[in-house]
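User: Structure please.
Assistant: Input sequence and predicted structure:
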Amino acid sequence: MPRALTAFSSLYFATLLMLLGSGLLSTYLGLTLAANGVSELWIGLLMTGYYGGLVMGASVGHRLIARVGHIRAFVAGAGLVTASVLCHALFENVIVWLGLRVLVGMAMMCQFMVLESWLNEQSESHQRGMVFASYMVVTYLGLVLGQVVFAIKPELSLDHLLYVAMCFSLCLVPVATTRQIHPAPLRPAPLKARLFLQRIPQALTTIGVAGLMMGAFYGMAPVYAKSVGLPTSEIGMFMAVTICAGLAAQWPAGWLSDRIDRSQLIQVSAMVLTAVSVVMAIGLMPAGGLIFMTAIFGLMVFTLYPMAVALANDHVEPDDRVPLSAMLLVTFGLGASVGPLVSSGLMKWLGPGMLYVFMAACSAILVFRVRSAAVTGDHLVESAPLQFMPAAGNLASSPLAAAIDPRVEESAVIEQMQDEVVVEESAAADSGLDADQDDHRPG
């Protein structure tokens, strides 16, 4: 197994650089705008633009990869992100920055899709669980390192933008120099919204709420931390501790999730989140207490998404799990787009503590909505293995994540995500045949 993971080291390194740059950029923009007195609404709107770009990029990325191939699509995405990051230094207009955040989101989703399809192509079925878990660990590590930069260099300056640009430039190197053969192009997975809304409403509710909370956290937590008096170096630590706690919680939550009813675990996590969020909203604690509370927050909030994914897979047949992945992506993305906007409005009108009032309200929805009694089990798939897949919970994956999941048969992925390619090739062949026949017909 270690040898198999070593074969993906170049892809993992590219992922690490991407997430380091992305995490650094998000926090830098939030802190810079707050320091310049820009309204919290604009800060939230910028994060909304980023997540909206990620969701839109899922469709754009599929078509770009199909048109020009994986390496060229990855290069295009990295080039667009690098140019967009540097444009932040050239323009101080917040509206321009909003457009740049949308572009960054779309380009990064394309890069995620290239990396994930590559991992899927080069890994054996029995390796995919470890491959996917390692991919998520690298994702977390990149996000954490992006926050650590502020502890090393707390003064906000254009140097941070240069670091981000360097990360996205350097992530090209391992992908461009890889000896691996790039995989076949894939097309967008179909959506079966009505089926999933009827089949897994509790799981979709959890995914949507997780999106609301994670979008609000990444977008507005640096602003909250600054408003309660933390210096820039400790704001980076505040963010890093939360993410590290989320990583540490993945495997214990997975162990429990495979032995205890998943809906019950989601409800208990939501109860703890509600209590912790209320305490943080009050805000009457020293910096050490705040760091401790955000660690508990991270333990709980980062496990909502993967537990909901596991709950959803328990009630969906294997043939529908690729469309399910696309549905979960859209649901999480919509929540992550709305979360920063709503929380920033509340913070502007009622104060910074409203960020965690918003978090408490979101988690309270799950306390009442996701209950064991509400999960009928009518559509429980008996053949579904009890398997919990760690996830970053920040949309750092695409619909192709389903292809890496060992619960999904490789043939199902190929049938559902390459049919369009086959149809187009068949149509092209038929067109060519008709043309040949026309050439040989008597005039």
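The mean pLDDT is 81.
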